[in-house]
Amino acid sequence: EKRQFELGLRTSTDVLQAQTNFADAQSAEILALAEYQIALVDLAYATGTLLGAAKVQWEPIVPQSNIK
């Protein structure tokens, strides 16, 4: 649009609208990515795999060999 504006084929309103549409699309993409990450955390929580999904590992207090 900007190039067409420079050639006199588009108005400044067309350029501003295109820039607004682009910014809106970028915002929507970021929001979708954030909502996707939240959904993944919700899924891990609901399935009881939240710590595993976060790659949390812990060593048992009592070694397995001492458990009868």
UniProtKB/TrEMBL annotation:
Q: Which taxonomic lineage does the organism of this UniProt entry have?
A: unclassified sequences, metagenomes, ecological metagenomes
Q: Where in the cell is it found?
A: Cell outer membrane
- Any one Gene Ontology cellular component term annotated for this protein: efflux pump complex
Show the GO MF annotations.
Answer: efflux transmembrane transporter activity; porin activity
Which keywords accompany this UniProt record?
Cell outer membrane, Membrane, Transmembrane, Transmembrane beta strand, Transport
**Pfam families recorded for this chain?**
OEP
In terms of InterPro entries, this protein maps to: OMP_efflux, TolC-like
Q: Which residues form the signal peptide?
A: none
The protein, known as? Outer membrane efflux protein
